[in-house]
Amino acid sequence: MNCVLGPDNILYDTVLFREVYNFVGQVLPCWLSWFVAGFVIIFLLVNAVLLGAAAFSWMERRLIGKFQNRLGPNRWGPFGLFQPIADMVKLLFKEDLTPGTADKLVFLAVPVAMVAPVMLMLAVVPFAKDTALANLNVGVLYILAVTSVTSIAIFMAGWSSNNRFALFGAARGVAVLISYEVPVVVSLLGVVMLAGSMSLADVVSAQTLPFIIVQPMAFFVFVAGTAAELNRTPFDMAEAESELIAGYHTEYSGIKFAMIQAAEFGGVMAASGVIVTLFLGGWEGPAAHWLGWLWFLLKTMAVAVGFIWVRATFPRLRIDQLLALAWKFLLPVSLINLLATALEIYFLRDASGVLTRGDLGIMTGINLALMAGCVFLFGSLVREKVRPVAPGLPPGVTPVILPARESPARDLPAGETD
Amino acid sequence: MLFQDVVFWLLTVVAVGSALGVVLIRDLFRAALLLVAVFVAVGGYFVLLNAEFLAVVQVLIYAGAISVLIIFAVMLTRDVQQGNPPNRLQIPAVALAALLLAALVTVAVDTQWSFLPEGERQSVELVQTAAVSDISPETLEQAGAAGESAAQGVGLADLLIGRFVLPFEAVSVLLLAALIGALALVRPRPAPQDARASGAESASESAGAGAAGSEAD
Fold first, then answer.
1. CATH number of B1-85
2. Mutation target vs A (from B54, B75, B149; most A CBs, 10 A cutoff)
3. What is the pTM of this model?
4. Mind telling me how many Å the CA of A211 is from chain B's nearest CA?
5. Do B135 and A151 touch (CB under 8 A)?
6. Which of A231, A319, B24, B168 has the fewest CB atoms within 10 Å, counting from its CB?
7. Distance of alpha carbon A179 from alpha carbon A287, whole angstroms
8. Domain boundaries, chain B
9. Is 0.85 exceeded by the ipTM?
């Protein structure tokens, strides 16, 4: 039964699929090998997302606990490590409610539409050298494409729930998504130009210096934009708990809620993996040939912890601050970065178009200086114009004269009328 | 090959079924979602043709951006749950659709593909060959690097800033005009009720640009 996947097959570039197919093809008939190889890929993707989501939910709750000077989950297993399992069991046994006025079919499709992009995103991230599930030659663009589908899932959730809070959350979420997509795409162009390829494996091998120091502006823009697209604090307008209950997934419960939650947590892990691949050198590190997967996992965890840290530190932005940041700061900075990178590559590359490590070092210096200038210049554009009210009232506010009372203790001082 | 045939027919069922749904279903929101399904299925055709770049761009632009704008417009339409009310434009619409279909079919059939330069014709032939059968290694070798690069975006970039630089720049001017138009529409007017009316109009046109416009003021 010698089944071997030839290079003319469209699945030839899917390294793992090819390897599994060729391996089982030695003993099984070809049509069965298709199913086995396909099943292996799907099994790996589903479990990577679910395990990543479980690990991240535990990490987030423990760390937020530490940041807020409390314990966090600590009962179930060592350090509360089994808490995600307990959460899962609880959510599975909860009643699965669907609102009576909901658009049932669309409502049902939302959890699937939320989880699918995360799995598709993980499919192209290389975990170690030559170890991606699929080595696409348009990998960077592919990641942008599959993540852009998330906005439709958010729309579906908001609309089908037939609930005004869900709809508000969806409208906000999509406004944020389409605003932040522009700077994210433009910031990635610098990386693609430096690597000379859109394949993620090539981007990693081009990083003789990690792109985080060669492209500091692109890194900041990409991380900020990713946090916004993942609805992470400080950009979590779409599910602001204190304003919108839970935003677009207000009406979801039970297993559907678990899937949406898994998509969000797994999305953070997948996005961290993408950030590591694009900016932090991916699998590279000491003894990368044997320990590449370990460096990749450690770096991914570090980026994920960074996301948690940001969540614990910054308050939520208002919607106007959010859009001002996107259009007045991130977009011009990413455009300047694109222009500067293009010019630097044009002048620094040698005849065959190769950039040496020294060239990258020169670019690092220029880009860092440029970043300081940009932060100074565009930072003043988004700085909050509203100053705290000085003693006395702002113009146009008539003071409320409180009637005299017996106990003066509750009287408010001047300037704090509400 | 069997696998590609199966995928092709699955994609066709999805694409044609969803396209029928788009025009037949009364719920506008579901129709918009089915349009997304059509776009994704067309992206699947591009994957089958080994044109991954086109497939990804199809999903990125059509499924990720254009349908989001369409859904925004649907959500900002009043009484959308009643569906699309019947009106007297049905017959002109049918005539227009038929004309458009005829024009598209004519263009597709009558285009002289050999008019293209040598390298590009090979890449077009490569795609056409792949449409009826799977690509053999010999075809790939014959088409050479030209076909490979044209499918993967390198040739596309050369064409965009080389031969087709004028249309490319014209499109960018058009986009700039649309952006300025959105800005002008959302600009606050002296009379408050006027401003509210114009804001509602422009919001359906370009939500992102509209947000930028209101920020810039």
1. 1.20.120.1200
2. B75
3. 0.76
4. 23
5. no
6. B24
7. 41
8. 1-85, 164-217
9. no
